[in-house]
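Ticket #4471: structure export looks truncated?
Reporter: QA, pipeline team
Priority: medium

Steps to reproduce: submit the single chain below to the structure queue and open the exported record.
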Amino acid sequence: MTSRYRVLVVGMGKRGMHHAATFHANPRCELAGLCDIDPGRLEAAASKLGNPKTGRDARSLAMEVRPDIFCFCTLPQLRTELVEVGIESGARLIAFEKPLAMSSVEGAAIRQRLEAAGVKAVISHQHRYGAHYQKVREIVASGALGRIHTVYGTATGWMTHMLSHLVDYTQWFNDYTPAQWVMAQAAGRGKFKDVHASPDYLGGFIQFANGVRGILEVGAGAPDVPEVDYWWRKCRIGAQGSDGFAEVLTGGGWRAVTKSGASGGPGTMNYDADMPPYIQEMVDWLDDDRRVHSCNFAHAYQGFEIAMGLCQSVIEGGQVALPLARTMDEIAALQARIPERTVLVSMAANAKEYGV
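Actual output as written to the record:
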């Protein structure tokens, strides 16, 4: 067992700093390198994090540092390139942000490359470490809801920002049972101009192999979560069963109704609390192959195919079987498919965020 794992973090924006600071604080990790194309931001980050090696070119720095863990927190268009850098550097684990990829073509290629290289990978679905998320999972797993028949998730943020999270946590509540098919519809073209290119609104259904139905809505038409003030945290994820329901609000705690009565508690998204266990599980997985990371690539890819299947349903119409039979550039095809009509929103705050 390695006493300390060498870590390189690429991208010193907000998320990169969250990762770098948490790696730096973990006694089993050595923050050996930081990379960013902005020299001022890079210098500022290094001064706060023990002054590790720095560089503006990820490949050159990775080949110099030779990290055990290669972590990147960059724009979504750079996934394939940086996964390849991590593999070439000899990293044993690659950690990166959602979405896993911007198309099923890219996602399939990334999976094939990681499997061929035998490199572990994790995707940052770190909200699950919040106490309110953990409590809902505990209730679902306890059997207190009886027979689970529905899992659901809504978020007012747009697809490539939020759908990955919703899919992952609803799968988690359903024990990552494989999906058999999906069906969806979408509207609005405004967010195709965003770096996280997306339709303005997407809603759809998932049929899981154990008979559980998933229902997801993301974007401008998604319902309000009035209990939560901060717009980006208006996310509701839960499970319904024969004996009750339990749900988590990303910015507003948790609640449940079971045969024992109603209950609830506090909780909100908190990187300071959520990131340490996410990072520690990387160490644990490198120490012992049996201690698979909760955010492992296999689970994330299962959810990624659900998300891309929902997109393919919008593009082609009707149900889409899973695993996907073919890959495509879903974002480009969605742009060609969705009509030039202003999206209809669910609340005034969505009208502001989607420019309607």
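Status: closed, not a bug. The export was complete when the record was re-opened. Leaving a note from the reviewer for reference: The two ends are 56 Å apart (CA to CA).
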